Amino acid sequence: MKYQIGGFSLNQKDEVTFSLEVGKDKEVLFYASEELIKNFDTAVFEQAQNVALLEGVMSPVIVMPDAHSGYGAPIGTVFASDANNGIVSPGAIGYDINCGMRLIRTNLKWAEITRYIERLVNLLYQYVPAGVGKKGIIKFSKADLKQITSKGAYFMVQKGFGLKEDLDFIEDKGVIGGGEIEAVSETAQQRGLVQLGTLGSGNHYLEIQRVTEIIDKKTAYEWGITEKDQVVVMFHCGSRGLGHQVCSDYVRLFLKHNQFGLPDKQLAATPIKSSWGQNYLAAMAAAANFAFANRQLITYQIRRAFEKVLGIGSQKLGMKVVYDVAHNIGKFEEHVIPGTNQKRQLFIHRKGATRAFVDQPVIIGGSMESGSYLLKGSTGAMQKSFGSTCHGSGRVMSRSRAKKLIQGAKLLKKMKQKGIYVKSASLSGLAEEAGMAYKDINLVVEAVTKAGLSTPVAVFKPIGNVKG
Amino acid sequence: MPQTNWQIIEDKSLADVAVKVEGRDYKELLENVALAFKELMVTGELDNLKWINVEIEAESIEELIMKLVEFWILIKDTKNRLPVTVKIAKIKFPFKDGVKIKTGVIKKDKIKGVDIKALSWHNLKVEKVKGSYQVELVFDV
After folding, report:
1. Model pLDDT, residue A160
2. Element (DSSP H or E) covering residue A396
3. Are B121 and A265 an interchain contact pair (Cβ–Cβ within 8 Å)?
4. Min Cα separation B1/chain A (Å)
5. How far is B90 from chain A (nearest CA, A)?
6. Using one digit for the tens of pLDDT, what is the confidence trace for A367-402?
7. Which end of chain A, N or C, is more open, meaning fewer C-beta atoms within 10 Å of its C-beta?
8. Concatenated DSSP letters for A250-262?
């Protein structure tokens, strides 16, 4: 069946798969329901087409159901290039390198902490600085930064900011090999050093949540999610100014030495084996390690806040890391090219998409009003999407429109009435993140489930929220 | 004072902020880029301005805008100050000879709006339309 959306002709392959032909031999596969794809902003199709047109990008380019327009590649894009002869595009990995999610479980019940929620959220807001340009509480030296960028979360655990076992529940055990501070500019280092341990702003948040539904009981139990109303902590942040500057520096460098016909300057790319490509990979790994270390430090601060408010040790509270996943990253992985039986060593770009290897936990953050999901990776993802799934609910409304339609103060009051205590650095920032600015997360999860990319394990709703 | 001439482009780059900026010449264009940067991040009256001098080399007006915005972001993230205005005595092509720019900064505790973390190259092209220079900027926030 053919669909015309925003001047693009799509071919519907099944209930949740749409194909866009690009040129003679490439296609973009959109995994989304009819309802979701009809509401994609038109720029998603244009930007996805631009990615497919980029030299060295293999077919198919994958677009997730939570996709929305960005710059260069849409947020919610996965694509591969050959690991040896392919390209790397910093802009198609994103500014916030290793922006990701971490989920921490507790053995607390909702009823046990209801009266502590305001104190907990207020102390978390103090311990994990959020908002524009906030600096970290725990100071680190430039010598520390060198180690952070090569050792990631392991460095923080070595310094006492976490448990050794935390590392077992982080993608790549919290460190990506090859991170080199020498590949990171002085400007990027300066921006990052003062921001360690901070949440940031925009769509970054820290939530105390309760389990509202367990869908896959066996898996949930294995991951320590045992019953409804169990309290968990979920947060979303990345590599802060360091990652942003790494991306800016290398996009500019690649543009200066551009060898390709670029459909969008933000997609500037270089051969992966070139010296510039290798330098970017070293800088990207450094930024990814910074992000893993940042989330580890924030975990330490979350444990401290719970200990202080409840007067019980975090070990006794059962505060263990369920998992930590990146959703803006580039990785060398072996995959079957979708639609073929051909297995190859590839370089996978994930921008607003999560790795979803078989049985791997996948954390999907929703809007602060709608709640979030824990999913499990599946074989379908390995066959159809280079081992990837969605990353969130995805925006349907621009920040500026949301601010026009929603008043932050009213939203704050509404959230309180719904039993969600919010501490936000900015009321206008809060308005930008209102539930109506996002897609229905249930539809997004339903689409990736039907497409076989991952399966739902548990659902969480917020009870307390720290917002940048 | 520059003629205030910038506006948000609605419903573009949903997760970020896209703006269109105009100026009668390069100098005014840069002044209005500074104005957009300021008004996206700060509300209310500004006082106690301090000035920081910078000289930027660039091969194009687009690169000049990019380097200037990156300089402002560095100040915001590391110096506890927020750039809010610029003074440019003269601006002459080619920019590789260096453009001297004075940036007015305020204390960062006045920040109320969005946090600009990067300027993307997406659609970053200065064009002359009906006698004025126009550029579309997509800020990562």
Report:
1. 98
2. none
3. yes
4. 26
5. 26
6. 888 899 999 999 999 999 999 999 999 988 888 889
7. N
8. HHHHHHHT--S--
